[in-house]
Amino acid sequence: MLMPEPDRDSLAKRERIVEALRAIVPGEGVIASQDELRAYECDGLSAYRAVPMAVVLPSTTGQVAEILKLCNEERIKVVPRGAGTSLSGGALPLEDGIVLGLGKFNRILDIDYENRTVTAQPGVTNLGITKAVEDAGFYYAPDPSSQIACSIGGNVAENSGGVHCLKYGLTTNNLLGVEMVLPNGDVLRLGGKHLDSEAYDLLGIMTGSEGLLGVVTEVTVRILPKPETARAVLVGFPSNEQGGDCVASIIAAGIIPGGLEMMDRPAIHAAEAFCQPGYPMDVEALLICELDGPAAEVDHLIETVTSIARQHGATFVKASQSEEERQKFWLGRKAAFPAVGRISPDYYCMDGTIPRAQLSHVLRRMQEMSEEFGLRVANVFHAGDGNLHPLILFDANKPGELERAEEFGSAILRLCVEVGGVLTGEHGVGVEKRDLMPEMFTEDDLNQQQRLKCAFDPAQILNPGKVFPRLHRCAELGRMHIHRGQIPFPDLPRF
């Protein structure tokens, strides 16, 4: 994985830029010593590291605007960073750029129960929003496994999901408005507390834009009342294929669970050893199916799901009998990633999405690939919407294993595209999947996406080196081809 070569002119400006940043954010708002910068050298994709020129930690929208205006004028690259939990290298620094950290934007600004909205600064954690409203019987639906740490601003940048996104949607389905700063320092508001944003869907463009178009400084999200009843069912199967087929049948029956997750044997055993959620140890695949709504409806759906599971060969079925037991079932799923960290020195967490009907085929092929690459794989994923999170286990201290893990991961993502899926579901492209974008998009597709970036960021200072395998200059994308002195469509008026 290669990043753009550091720009010598930018590096030569370092001391002057640091002093200018200190004038904008006085006190301890600028980090410039090499030892302190090490804390920012990577995000959750820790295989790749780079020490930035500086880190700046503003606390107001005005400071963010001044910082971006300065960097735009000086052509200094900027990498926005939330909590640093990105698993695709989205917050990977650049040696000739600064990191714009938003950790000080950590306040909830408004809770409006009448309109069922919360307005928060981008550094507020995902779980922090639910904690702020749960006493009134509300919650924020998208719930990534990292929700205790990941920031709502980062959720917007990556369009994060979670175990409940099957029924209640990703970030984009729960986001109502943002305040954002453009690279030139202009401050915009998109959307608000109303149901839908006006005119062009710029809010939709910003959601999942991975820090390439602007910096979000305020977020308004929809909150939901807690359902009357929620119960989870554990269903165990003798094979991954049976579990995958059961998922497709549940959805085909018209049932939309609050959450529908799947774990394979390595993940089951790791989670049980880590936090004892009560998982069966004699199954190859485990489904966690949560059903919510009125009590009578939930009881009926549990019976229906149990019947479907038995038809697919389920050997273990257990429904939660209390809220404490339901939370315990989910504890193992939420803790699966750290649990797997106990059984391998390193692991590479992937993210791809496939049609549900392809689950059993893809799981079988991944097991075959595991043997081909000589690396174990544990599967923990959002089965209901086909969002896979294979964990490739390796040891970075063994020569060649990291590279082999990356090759294995690329093969999985190519398989996702091959069966009609996409390269990412919620982790984003970042640097991890950047060079695989041509597997999914043509050159014309990618050029058109880059033209959109140019509309927001003509100087290309925001998060360069991410998402696009080869970033064009904006002037190149706007060039008109002239053949033998003739411009295209010469009869059209030009202004």
UniProtKB/TrEMBL annotation:
InterPro entries: FAD-bd_oxidored_4_C (IPR004113), FAD-bd_PCMH (IPR016166), FAD-bd_PCMH-like_sf (IPR036318), FAD-bd_PCMH_sub2 (IPR016169), FAD-linked_Oxase-like_C (IPR016164), FAD-linked_OxidoTrans_Type4 (IPR051914), Oxid_FAD_bind_N (IPR006094), Vanillyl_alc_oxidase_C-sub2 (IPR016171). The keyword Iron does not apply. It comes from the Bacteria. Gene3D superfamilies: 3.30.465.10, 3.30.70.2740, Vanillyl-alcohol Oxidase, Chain A, domain 4 (1.10.45.10). Keywords: FAD, Flavoprotein, Oxidoreductase. The keyword Protease does not apply. Coiled coil: none annotated. GO terms for molecular function: FAD binding; oxidoreductase activity. It comes from Marinimicrococcus flavescens. Its cofactor is FAD. Residues 48-226 form the FAD-binding PCMH-type domain. This is FAD-linked oxidase C-terminal domain-containing protein.
